[in-house]
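hey so i finally got around to running the thing on that chain from the lab meeting. sorry it took forever, my laptop kept dying and i had to restart like 3 times. anyway pasting the input first so we r on the same page abt which one it is
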Amino acid sequence: MRLAQDVLKQPGTFQSLPDRETRLWENRLDWSVGRIDMQAILRLSYVDGRQREAFMFRIQRTFGE
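ok and heres what got predicted. didnt touch it at all, straight out
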């Protein structure tokens, strides 16, 4: 799990950059069964005040010895 928050409204700092994440929540789950590796990632973030969600699921099988 990864959690981050960027404080952009502080006196004496530059304006925020476009397409910059201000809040981020990311969960990642990796697991293996025999020769099969699986991964799931859930990511919630705020970019320019808009919420964005992403989900990725990956399965990989190895062959040979």
